[in-house]
Amino acid sequence: MDATGQESFLEFVTNRSTALLRTAVLLSGGDRHAGEDLLQNALIKAADHWHRIDEPEAYVRQILYRQQVSRWRLKGRRRELTVAEPPDPGTDSRTSSGADGTGAAELRLVMRDALSRLTARQRAVLVLRYFEDLPEADVARLLGCSVGTVRSTTHRSLARLRVLAPELHLLDDPSDTHRQQQPPSRDFAPVEVRP
Length: 195
Fold this sequence. Notes:
Blueprint: H1 3-27, H2 32-48, H3 56-74, H4 102-116, H5 120-131, H6 136-143, H7 147-164, H8 178-181
Helix pairs in contact: 1-2, 1-3, 2-3, 5-7, 6-7
């Protein structure tokens, strides 16, 4: 890499590494260290081809997604999440959302734990669809699967999140009571079937 390439690479890393690290951490299930490793490997690969890259951020993000897909294809799913301290069963995140923000922090921890218990593929699809806000076709292209696979994986992943962390319903808009109080449709009356 020549001096100008080195300078532009350093500028890119300085300006975009924080956003890329957030994506890498989410892709690796909330594990910051694994996310840092993922990003570092992606940047190393990008540095090797820096002189040929037209859109550096898109290129690095593609490397991140593909590396994570390779990881979940090669490794078995982690069955256990180790934490420094066990959760306190006496606290309820629904009642501790006071002014100090502990409720929001607890919800983030619940989300992180639930995401870590998803498969790497499920996590990747959710990160790409909802964090990166990519359309299904782009997610399918990045992960090397069909759009139908992305749709079904998204559906199953969200259903699994609801099972793993039912307290995440608190993230819904509390002012949106339309879904909860909507009466059943009376457009269709039961039909009696006669032989």
